[in-house]
TrEMBL record:
SUPFAM superfamilies: NAD(P)-binding Rossmann-fold domains. Transmembrane segments: none annotated. Gene3D superfamilies: NAD(P)-binding Rossmann-like Domain (3.40.50.720). This is SDR family oxidoreductase. It comes from Leifsonia kafniensis. Pfam families: adh_short. It comes from the Bacteria. Keywords: Oxidoreductase. Belongs to the short-chain dehydrogenases/reductases (SDR) family. InterPro entries: NAD(P)-bd_dom_sf, SDR_fam.
Length: 197
């Protein structure tokens, strides 16, 4: 578990186990003035899905899908009661392409839940935003030797989108490229399939 330290009196840290509904309920009770929720909890899962054991995959879904789902379900009435606000789901481009299959599957499920929440919560004046990006320089990607964008750039793009009333944030060129490729042939997303045609 990663617990950030803050030097501002304006920040009140709450430790929440997103896989535990009671823990989430305690956080909701401690934060009755909430107007924005950012679902950023996640764990990587890069093993091939064809041989992945079910317990490991279920754990990834508990954190990467059911956690944000539970957070949103429990905080939405609070946000609505405060006059509205926003729910931000950090998704990544991997919800569109199975580079890390187990992680991608959970994030793809969250993408669809985000779309559903967006429609369902709009009448309550709750803006639901999906944030997509390539690799971000965080502890989750520390061992990956790939180009990464800064967490600050993700935060800046996200809050700009919130201010502009947008529903989707394509933070970097990777996100824009992959999003654009969704309407193309499947082999464009997965070039390795071309050798089997």
């Amino acid at each position: 578990m990663c617990v950030a330290e803050w030097e501002s009196d304006l920040v009140v840290p709450l430790i929440v186990d997103v896989t535990n509904p009671e823990s989430v309920a305690r956080a909701v009770a401690q934060a009755p003035d909430t107007t924005i929720v950012i679902n950023n909890a996640g764990i990587p899962l890069r093993e091939p899905i064809a041989t992945l054991d079910e317990g490991t995959l279920r754990r990834a879904f508990e954190i990467n899908f059911f956690g944000p789902l539970n957070i949103t379900q429990q905080f939405a009435p609070v946000i609505a009661g405060n006059g509205g606000g926003a729910v931000v789901n950090i998704l990544s481009v991997l919800c569109w392409v199975a580079v890390a299959p187990g992680y991608s599957a959970a994030k793809a499920a969250l993408w669809q839940a985000t779309n559903a929440f967006r429609v369902e919560l709009a009448p309550q004046n709750i803006q639901v935003v999906a944030v997509h990006m390539g690799y971000v320089d965080t502890p989750m990607t520390a061992n990956l030797d790939v180009a990464k964008i800064s967490a600050e750039s993700v935060a800046t793009s996200t809050f700009d989108a919130l201010a502009d009333g947008e529903y989707e944030v394509l933070v970097d060129d990777t996100a824009r490229t992959v999003r654009g490729a969704l309407s193309g042939p499947l082999a464009g997303m997965y070039p390795q399939l071309q050798v089997h045609v």
